[in-house]
Amino acid sequence: MADGQALLEELKARPRWPWLGIRMRPGRKTLVNAAGEENAFAFRPLLTVNSIDAACQLAIAGAGLATPPAFLVENELAAGLLVEPLPGWRAAALGVYAVWPANAARASLTLRLVQHLAQTAG
Asked: Residue ranges of the LysR substrate-binding domain (predicted)?
């Protein structure tokens, strides 16, 4: 996959590619391949939006590059409305965090759900 490696190097060297940014995420991407190799690079978004759904719609409209979860764009990929510029590479998984205030009720259903998720996803 030499072409993919060359494109990754170009992504690193040219931070002005037309990336679509998400306001709550920093201007940094880490891509991972099936072998677990990671490539990280900084970028400056062409456009910044408040939701991944908005970034998906802009990417479908041809406004720029995005790294949405596959389930959000699987139909568009299958229909040829989107293409994967780096087949075999995916955005690194993001962490999921739950913050619980110390003074909240300990017997609440929300806390029990958070504890269950922490045990099963951990």
From this structure: 16-120
